[in-house]
Amino acid sequence: MSRRRWTSAAGLAAAIALLAGAPSAGAEDPPRSAMNSVFAEGLGPGLWYSANYERLIIDDLGARLGFSYMQVSASVPGSSASISWVTFPLTVSYLGLGSGSHSFEVGAGATLAYATGEASAFGSSASGAGVTGWGSFLFGYRYHPRSTGFHFRVGLCGLFGPGMPLGSSEFGFLPFGYISFGATFGFGEEPAPEKKASEPEPKPEPKPEKKPEKKPEKKPEPRPEPRPEPKPGPKPGPKPQARPEPKPAPRPTPKPEPKPKAAPAHARVKPAARIRLVPKDLLKRVRFGETDRDDVLDAFGMPRDMDQNKIGMVFRYQARTFPGFLQVSFQFGSNKILKWIHVHLAARISREQVEARYGKPASVARAAKGYKVLVYPRRGWKVFIKDDEVRSVRVEGR
Question: DSSP characters for 208-270?
Fold first, then answer.
């Protein structure tokens, strides 16, 4: 390859890297929820075109398998020839050079090819078949949304090995470009909660205290007025008999009111205005992309337990530190900076209450094991629900 062609390729690579954007210092992107891609590619490791499926093995490393079929035939009076081949491009790509959905992709792999051909002329014919393979590499710009959406790639690639360029019998190199369009999607990407404790049964509400019944006040009995004594006369007659004093009618005794029945356990939930999905003041004490492990230890003390996963260190705090919640987990990256917080609720809260309190989610995604994910991007929340009840909330920052 001439020096001018190498200079042009290097300039294009630099432009693609600037388009992808260098990752900002200390910032951490939220984890991907769409780990699968299907796309059609023009040119590339599949030679003329290919249909491909790719799976991100980890957050920034993907493996793809493609398929391509091509047939060419020609004929002149008295003779004809045809050739067909099938290619299988296999590549592994790294997407960690970028920010958000934009990245600079670097990859390498191999392309397997199976070709068949036959020719006939003047009554005689011949045919043959064979398998070969070439090494491949690629680099370019890639738009890969971290959730379900449109997928786009463009860049430069090359094939090297025996028979390159096509038609040659020696070991060589064939440079060209590629462009692809497709979609990303996810299934089975719902993170399993870390060591989730069994949900306790809701505590029965205390019975209302029985108010003492008010006894009817006794009214004083009316006293008869004294009768004036009869004046002495010449012949006092017999004294009139005193009339019996009227007795007040007995007042009916009020019946005690029936005790109110306790509400069933599944109905004893908090009003929508009082529900809380995240511990109070938690988000005022941490900052995503800035808070590190030492800051969390200074703010909340030693966790109940901690361990290391493929992303980084995890701190887990129980209800003693965050009353009213089963568990609060802090996930850190390899650079010891906080990536997200996973909150497991103790209270029973329904999806209807969440939407009444915080509004309709921007989107609803399906996850494994019957879970659904309510996405609130303005709050940086992903609310995991199952059987119409909230199980946990992941806080990833805005």
Answer: PPPPPPPPPPPPPPPPPPPPPPPPP-SS--PPPPPPPPPPPPPPPPPPPPPPPPPPPGGG---
Q: Phi and psi at residue 117, in whole multiples of 5°?
A: -155, 155
Q: Which residues lie below 8 Å from residue 257, measured CB to CB, with a gap of 6+?
A: none
Considering the segment(s) 3-73+82-119+127-185 as one domain, its CATH architecture is Beta Barrel (2.40)
Instruction: Report the alpha-carbon distance of residue 136 to residue 384 in Å, rounded.
Output: 42
Pick the closest to residue 40 from 133, 153, 123 (CA basis).
153
| CA distance readout (Å), 393 to 186, 201, 224, 277 | 19, 20, 80, 7
Q: What share of the chain is helix, strand, coil (3-state, %, to 5)?
A: 10, 45, 45
Domain boundaries, the chain: 3-73+82-119+127-185, 269-395
| Segment (H or E) for 12 | helix 3-20
| Mean pLDDT in residue range 199-227 | 59
Cα gap 295→291, rounded to integer Å: 6
Q: Is residue 260 within 8 Å of residue 208, measured between CB atoms?
A: yes
- Residues 260, 263, 269, 272, Cα dihedral to 10°: -50
pLDDT in tens, 119-161: 777 667 778 888 888 899 999 999 988 888 898 999 999 888 8
Q: Give 80-118 pLDDT, tens digit per residue.
A: 888 898 999 999 999 888 877 888 999 999 999 998 988
